[in-house]
Amino acid sequence: MEDARLAFLNRLAAVTLTTGGVTxxxxxxxxxxxxxxxxxxxxxxxxxxxxxxxxAVEIRDFVAEHxxxxxxxxxxxxxxxxxxxxxxxxxxxxxxxxxxxxxxxRRYGQEGGRWVVAIYNPVRGxxxxxxxx
Length: 133
Known about the structure:
Layout: H1 3-19, E1 21-25, E2 30-31, E3 38-41, E4 48-50, H2 55-66, E5 75-80, E6 87-95, H3 98-112, E7 118-121, E8 126-129
Antiparallel strand pairs: 1-2, 1-5, 3-6, 4-6, 5-6, 7-8
Helix pairs in contact: 1-2
């Protein structure tokens, strides 16, 4: 893995652990600022849940394994669950309206074999639960 890419992926782990989460455009190697949109996993069956202690290694493995899925409309997302303190790695997408996000999240959950539990708007700081775990 090239040095700039490796440094960027390590930075994603550091930002996740210090701020609680991060969204990134892997193809451009940029951290994306929060948008007033609803975020949710595009491929929920690929979500990876890992301990904080191995986050940097897991991010590198996750991105390498799913590199072909990062394209327009799909970004890398990581967040720390405040209850369990585990880190969630996702291929995320977004929708401008809550209703559209709910519909797409349910559809992607059915397609991906793992239900999307919630959608999140980072600008509003709002999490909407779609179903119980």
